[in-house]
What does this fold into?
Amino acid sequence: MAPRSAAWEVETLEYTPEVERAATPLFERLRGAVPEIEWPVHAPYLVRIEELKKERNAVILAHSYQTPEIYHGIADIRGDSLALAQEAARTDADVIVLCGVHFMAETAKVINPEKTVLIPDLRAGCSLAESITGDDVRGLRAQHPGVPIVTYVNTSAEVKAESDICCTSSNAVRVVESLGVDRVIFLPDEYLASYVATQTDVEIIPWDGRCEVHERFTAEEVRRYRSLAADLIVLAHPECPPEVLAEADYVGSTSGMARYVRERQPRNVAMITECSMSDNVAAENPNVNFIRPCNLCPHMKRITLPRIMRSLERLEHRVEVDPAVAGRARIAVDRMLAVGRGSGG
Ligand code: 13P
Ligand code: SF4
It folds into this structure.
């Protein structure tokens, strides 16, 4: 596998007869998920990543928004934010490669301070995580003394450390209700907060963060999809605006949407969420027809097979969290893990 281009930031690997032989069993994972014509492009990386996983005793965790060649091709553990955190807590691998965004890798590190946690591209951020700082959370606590703070995992470890408990889109309502109080501060996603408020009697004090991917969907767009098929089932992520959620048949996390399709096998479905989600779920449900709205998360798409390969080769980029911050963040994450999955997942 000789390098073909030194100019590209990660060397381009060739599709040789040796690679073809080694990749043959791996191709089964791509069948139905990635067009066959693309297999030779991915094959050299799939083969090398599989070798490196063994050498490093590494596990690859991939979020549902990763592209199919990653999600189906090389991930050991796949799913929503909660599934990745739960599996990070269980793994006995030495190295965790997080194919997702930075806050997910930080959460894995907080849970596993002794392990090497890698993110293939450090620039994989998140608009929600960037919308709030530890100082902001301290300010909210001072403004609302005694009111518990529930923090979506899409935040930095510093923000988690200032919080009482974390949640994901799959268990937000359950986490809020687990506290047994009348009011909570819920941050940072304004739309997830307003969705939770429709599902519980607990008063929700929101922050004004938004996901740059989900905030772009509109109710008008959903109604247009409905006009294409009378029996269309619309599944939407709770990071979408309220008027979009009002048009949906089901609101839930990425794993919740995937389970809905797997168990109910609707004839026609539209998933109002990030692009790769429909591709990944469609590959597992060949009898379901997907309308594929596409708002792409540019942060998730920083992760590619060549960057994953380089990450394992060089053990970069290591995610580190200040131990004092990690210790406090872990309390909030552990409390969430003890609550488990809710009806949105
Ligand atoms: P879930 O994984 O909880 O569905 O969240 C989606 C998301 O936007 C993660 O970045
Ligand atoms: Fe953040 Fe939205 Fe991208 Fe998820 S999809 S990582 S919430 S910007």
Summary: The pocket of 1,3-dihydroxyacetonephosphate (ligand 1) is lined by residues 80-81, 154, 168-170, 211, 239, 253-254 (CB under 6 Å).
